[in-house]
Design goal:
By secondary structure, the chain is α/β, with parallel strands linked by helices. It is built from twelve helices and nine strands. It starts with 5 loop residues before the first helix and ends in an 8-residue tail after the last helix.
C-alpha cells in the first residue's frame, strides 16, 4: 500500500494477506516521501491482525533509504524490510548494519529482510545476494523493473522471464530462503491471475506479490496445498510404510481406485513429507496426522 495514503493503510489491516507491505518507494510521489515515513511509522503502531508488517524502503541509489530506515527502525512493531533494486550483496549489508545500529530493542533480533531482484546484474549476483545476511528471509522477483532494466517485453505467457524467475527460485532454495513471484498487473482479470499463480507454484515459488485486495483469495487458495495434494501425499506415506515393512525401496502408488499409476521412490517420499508439513503449517491438517 502507498505509504502516503493513510486510508489505504488502515483498510489493509483487515486483509487476509499473510504480509502487509507499507511502501515508501514507487507508489509515493517525491514531494511526499518525508510525510510518508511518518505515516508508515504510525501505521505500524496501529496495525492489528496476524499479518506480518513490512516496509519497502527507497533504493539505496536514491539517497533516501537511510532517512527511511532512520524513522521506521524506531518502530517496535516492524517485522521486516523489503529492499528494492538490490544489485549486489552491498545493499543487503547496508540495511543489515543499519538494523544492528539503530533498530528498536524489541525488534532488533527479529527483523527480517526481503531482497528484490529487479535487474540483470542482480540475477548475475544471486549467490552473493542470497548469502549476504543471516537476516535475509526471501528473494522477490520484480518483473516490471527487470523488464525496464533489460529491455525485455513482458508477454502474457511470460516465457521471456522464465530464466530470471527460475534463477531466483533456485538461488532461494539453495540457501534456505523463500521465493516470492512477480505481481499480476492484470488485477481485474482473474483468468490471468490464476494462470500466473499455477505457473509460479509449479516453478517452485512459495508466494506471490499482490497489488489489489481482490487478488488475495485466489493467491492464497492456489499456493496452499489442495485436498487432492494432501490426499496424494498421505497415500504416498501410507504405502511407503507398507513398502518398508516388505523391504521395498520403491513401489507403485495405487490411485484412489486401486490401480498402480506411478513409481514412488525416495525423492517423491521427501516431496510428500514436505507437502504434509506445509499443510500442517497452513492449518489444513492436524499436527498428529
Amino acid at each position: 500500500m502507498p505509504g502516503s495514503d493513510e486510508k489505504k493503510l488502515k483498510k489493509s489491516f483487515t486483509s487476509e494477506a499473510d504480509a502487509l507491505c507499507f511502501d515508501l518507494e514507487d507508489s509515493v510521489a517525491s514531494d511526499r516521501k518525508a510525510g510518508a515515513r511518518e505515516t508508515v511509522f504510525h501505521a505500524l503502531s496501529a496495525a492489528g491482525g496476524s499479518a506480518e508488517k513490512l516496509v519497502r524502503i527507497n533504493s539505496l541509489a536514491s539517497a533516501l533509504a537511510e532517512d527511511d530506515l532512520g524513522i521506521i527502525l524506531e518502530s517496535p512493531k516492524l517485522d521486516g524490510i523489503v529492499i528494492p533494486k538490490v544489485h549486489s550483496a552491498e545493499e543487503v549489508l547496508f540495511v543489515h548494519n543499519m538494523i544492528e545500529e539503530r533498530a528498536h530493542d524489541d525488534t532488533k533480533s527479529s527483523i527480517r529482510l526481503i531482497a528484490s531482484i529487479e535487474s540483470a546484474r542482480a540475477v548475475m549476483n544471486l549467490k552473493e545476494i542470497a548469502t549476504a545476511s543471516p537476516r535475509l528471509d526471501a528473494l522477490l522477483f520484480a518483473a516490471e523493473d527487470f523488464c525496464a532494466d533489460t529491455g525485455i517485453t513482458r508477454s502474457r505467457d511470460r516465457r521471456e522471464l522464465s530464466y530470471a524467475r527460475s534463477a531466483t527460485v533456485l538461488a532461494a532454495k539453495a540457501y534456505g530462503l523463500s521465493a516470492i513471484d512477480l505481481v499480476c498487473i492484470h488485477y481485474q482479470n482473474p483468468e490471468i491471475l490464476e494462470e500466473e499463480c499455477e505457473e509460479g507454484r509449479r516453478m517452485g515459488f512459495d508466494a506471490k506479490q499482490i497489488i489489489h485486495p481482490a487478488q488475495v483469495s485466489t493467491i492464497n487458495k492456489i499456493f496452499s496445498p489442495s485436498e487432492k495434494d494432501i490426499e496424494r501425499a498421505q497415500r504416498v506415506m501410507q504405502q511407503y510404510e507398507l513398502a518398508v515393512k516388505s523391504g521395498k525401496g520403491a513401489y507403485g502408488l495405487a490411485n484412489a481406485k486401486g490401480g498402480e499409476t506411478e513409481m514412488i521412490d525416495a525423492p517423491m517420499i521427501l516431496q510428500a513429507e514436505k507437502m504434509l508439513a506445509k499443510a500442517r503449517q497452513f492449518g489444513l491438517l492436524q499436527a498428529q496426522a
